[in-house]
Design brief:
By secondary structure, the chain is an alpha/beta fold. It is built from eight helices and nine strands. A nine-stranded mixed β-sheet has the order 1-2-9-8-3-4-6-5-7, with helices on both faces. The longest helix is centred in the last third of the chain and has 16 residues, at about 190-205. The chain is globular and about 40 Å long. The structure holds S-adenosylmethionine (SAM).
Length: about 230
C-alpha cells in the first residue's frame, strides 16, 4: 500500500490494490461499489454531450476484463450488506436476491437505457429515475463516474448502514454520497490520478453543508411494507 489519507474522523482513503488492503480491514456495515465490468469503458471517448462533453479519457486498461471471482468473495465477506453496480456482469458470482436496483438514465438512444445493481437484500426491486445527460453538467472526472444522487440512493436502499466501504472508489462518488449522509466511509483506489480526484471531491463534500441520513419517503414506506 502506498498511501493512506484521513480526510476526517471515520473517512479514510487508501491508494492501492483492494485485494491487498481489504484483508487488513475490519468488517463494514455495507459495501457500496462499482467495480470494473470488463467491457472496455476506460479511455473510451464519451458520445453524449452532458457527461463532461465529448471528452477523451486516458486508456488505463482497468476495464479490459472483470475482476477475478476471488475479489467478489472478498467483497461479500468484508461487509454485512451490499450494493454492487454492474451486477448483470457478475450475476453468476452472487446468491439470488430480490432487491435489484435499476438506474433509469432517462435516455432512449443507442446507449444503454439504464444500469443494474445487485444487492444482498431480498426486498422489492427499485427503480431510480435520473436523467444522466441533464445532470452531469459540471463534467465528469472519471470515464465511468456515477452521479452522486445514484450512489446516495444506493446507500439509502440498505437498512441504515453506518460504515460504508467502496473498494473500487474511482473518483470517489460513493464517498461523496456517504459523507453527505453523515456516514463513515472507507475507499480504496488503485490509480493515483483517480485517487487524488477522490481525495479532493470527498474533502470538499465533507466541508460542505451536510444532508445527514434522514430516511427518505421510499425507505420509510419500505420499512412499513417490505416482505
Ligand atoms: C467503474 S470504476 C469506479 C467509478 C466510480 N464509481 C466513480 O464514480 O468514479 C472502477 C475503479 O476501480 C479501480 N480499480 C480497478 N482494480 C482495482 C483494484 N484491484 N483495487 C482498487 N481499485 C481498483 C479502477 O482504477 C477504477 O477507477
Amino acid at each position: 500500500m502506498s498511501r493512506v489519507e484521513t480526510i476526517a474522523e471515520g473517512v479514510t482513503l487508501y491508494l492501492g490494490d483492494c485485494r491487498e488492503i481489504l484483508p487488513t480491514l475490519a468488517k463494514f456495515d455495507a459495501v457500496v461499489t462499482d467495480p470494473p465490468y470488463g467491457i472496455g469503458k476506460d479511455g473510451q471517448k464519451r458520445t453524449t454531450g452532458g457527461h463532461g462533453g465529448r471528452k477523451a479519457y486516458e486508456f488505463k486498461g482497468w476495464d479490459k476484463e472483470r475482476p477475478d471471482p476471488e475479489i467478489f468473495s472478498m467483497l461479500l465477506q468484508c461487509g454485512a450488506k451490499h450494493v454492487i453496480w454492474g451486477g448483470n456482469y457478475f450475476a453468476d458470482l452472487f446468491p439470488p436476491t430480490g432487491k435489484w436496483l435499476v438506474w433509469d438514465k432517462g435516455q432512449r438512444i443507442s446507449q444503454s437505457d439504464g444500469e443494474l445493481a445487485w444487492t444482498s437484500e431480498n426486498g422489492a426491486l427499485r427503480i431510480f429515475d435520473l436523467n444522466r445527460v441533464a445532470l452531469m453538467t459540471d463534467g465528469a472526472q472519471h470515464p465511468t463516474q456515477k452521479p452522486v444522487e445514484v450512489m446516495r440512493w444506493s446507500i439509502q436502499q440498505l437498512n441504515h448502514p453506518k460504515t460504508i466501504i467502496d473498494p473500487f472508489m474511482g473518483s470517489g462518488t460513493t464517498g461523496v454520497a456517504a459523507v453527505d449522509l453523515g456516514l463513515s466511509f472507507t475507499g480504496i483506489e488503485i490509480d493515483p490520478q483517480y485517487f487524488d480526484i477522490a481525495c479532493r471531491r470527498i474533502e470538499a463534500a465533507f466541508n460542505a453543508p451536510r444532508l445527514f441520513a434522514e430516511p427518505t419517503q421510499q425507505t420509510q414506506a419500505q420499512e412499513a411494507f417490505e416482505l
